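Good day; I would like, with your permission, to put a structural problem before you. What I wish to show you is a protein chain and, alongside it, a tokenised description of its three-dimensional fold. Thank you for your consideration; the sequence and its tokens are set out here:
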Amino acid sequence: MGIEIVYFLIFPGLFFSGIIGGLISWADRKITARVQFRQGPPIFQPLYDFVKLLSKETIIPLHGSVTTYILAPVFALFGATISAVFILLPVLGLETGFAGDIIVIIYLLNIPSFAYIIGALASGNPLAAVGASREMKLILSYEMPFLLVLISIIIKSGMTIILSEIIGYQTANGAFIGSLSGIIGFITVMMCIQAKMGLVPFDMAEGEGEICDGITIEFSGSILAFFKLTRYIMFFALPALVAGLFFAGLSLSGIHILWSILKVFVIVLLITLIRNTNPRVRIDQAMRFFWLWMNLFAIISIVLALMGI
């Protein structure tokens, strides 16, 4: 039981993923600033933001479900942390009792999104309800192509759903990104991750200019800090999952550390460039994009995987 607590709280869970996710968040903001010809924040800005929010007063909405409103960020942070643990243990090659069932991982990755929705609805704010509605529609749109791409990966890896075995197959036979079906699947998954993290062009659930941060409009102080830490962790867990599914995982041994950092950096760079080179789309446009084009891409990836391409 003791080692499981260490996994959850220290490594590779809350503490480790929070720090690395904060650094990735800083890199994302720094690259964004450079693209816009600005200086950008200092490296410790994510930490400053988190600590500042913790020290601020938490304001409870007058009209809403107080208990649900307060517990939603805690639930989101728990979901992000347990997802990071279950992803990073196999991706980093750590030998434990959990080998990485990707069906379990997919379920866990949805916890933060549902927590955002529950928290927004519990706040009693109509703009938050609009944001929650958009988030629900977005989940229904991007989850299908995400699952279809996983089917192509399962086919390519010899019908296994265990993440460590998928990584082991790539280590022996080459990374899936080196195949045509892998490239198409990678493009699809990157778009799904962009939506799952609520980044431009799929940030309509927050929509600063339209609904004033939408799902997080009523959150403040320490409970908003919990949401921010959740995003930091997801900013590391999701690129790590992509590295495991398409780049044969990560490693913390010797020179392989640099190679692992490069893999994560390339994925984060692509995410940042996508959000800096595209305008926000409407929710109907996003749904059409995922239901038509991304599902088509994912099906093509499955067909190519069946053909061994």
Notes: DSSP finds twelve helices and no strands in the chain. The radius of gyration is 19 Å. The mean pLDDT is 92.
